[in-house]
Design brief:
Number of domains: 3
Distance between the termini: 69 Å
Number of helices: 16
Strand order of the largest sheet: 7-8-9-10
Structural class: alpha/beta
Strand content: 15-25%
Radius of gyration: 23 Å
Largest sheet: 4 strands, mixed
Number of strands: 10
Helix content: 40-55%
Amino acid sequence: MIQHYSLQELFTDAEQRKRCAHPVTATDIKAIARRLHPQRGEITRVYRGLYARTSYWNALDRLEQVRHIVRSLAVQHPNWIFCGPTAAIMHDLDCSYRLALPIRIVARPEDHQRSSKQLARYTMSHPETELVHGISVTTLPRTLFDCAARQPLRYALGPLDSALRQERIGRDTLLAYPQTVKYSRRREAVNRAFELADGRSENGGESEARGVLITVGRPPTDIQAEYPCLTYSGRKHRVDFLWKRQDERLIVGEFDGTRKYVDPSMTSRRTIQEVVDDERERQRCLERQGICMIRMYYDDLNNPSRLIQRLDAVGVPSQRDNDTSAS
C-alpha cells in the first residue's frame, strides 16, 4: 500500500479511468522514484512518463495494458491518431502480444521525427479516422490494411479473422477495400492476407498458427471441421485444422495455447487435469475414426524448420504436393 496521500489519489484516479498515472509535480515524481524497483517495487514504470501500481498492472493482460497506455497518451497528445496494431487493439481485435509495443501513431509526410522502441510513426497523407471510446484511431478497414501491409501473415490474420468473426465488417466490403487505398508498396501482400481471412477462426492463437502453416507451405484444407463423438451421442469434436491427403487420409491439427488450460472462459471452470483428460479422450476418439492428430504449440511457430519436420512426420501434405496433383 502506498503511504503517500498525493500518490494514492493519483493512482486511484488513474485506475478508475483505466489509465496510467502521469505525475507532474516534483513532489510526486520524487515519491514515485523512491518506490520504483525492478523486482519488488510498489510502482512500475510502464512507458515514458507513465506509471502504475505494480499489483494493479500485473493483473491486466498485455492488450489491456496497451489500452491503458493509449488512453493516457491520448490525454497528453489529443492530436495523435493511433494506427496499425495499436488501433487494432483499441478496436478490440485479436492481436499478438508481440505487437504491443511500440505504440503506433500516424505521422504526416512532412513530419521527420524518428520512431523509437516505444513509439513508431506510420506516414499517411490522408488518414481515415474514427473515435473509439473517445480515442482517435484509424478506421477499422484502414487498420486492417495497415496491419496486413506492415506485418508478416502470421500477425496479419488475427485482426482480420476477428473482424469477420465479430461481424464488424462484411467479407465483400473487406475484399474491396484495398483497391480504395491509393498508395501502397505491399498491395499484393495485403490482398493475399485479406483473401485468406476467415471468421471461423476462434481466437488469435489459431489465426497466428494458420498464418505460419500457410507461410511454411502446409495450408490447412479446412478449419473448424466437426466429427462425431463415439462416446456421447450428439456431441461433436471440432478441430482447429484439417488436412485431406490425396489418399483420402485425414489429419487434424490442434493448436494448444496455455489459455486453453487456464482461462476460465475456455475451460468451463474445469481443472487443468480435467481439461487434459478431456483432450486425451478427444484424441483417442478421433483416432478410432482413422483420423491422425498432431498438436502444435507456440514454440513451434517460432521454429518453422522444426514445425515442418513434425508436420512431415505425420504426412501433412505440402502446397507443392497439392499443386502437383491438381495439375
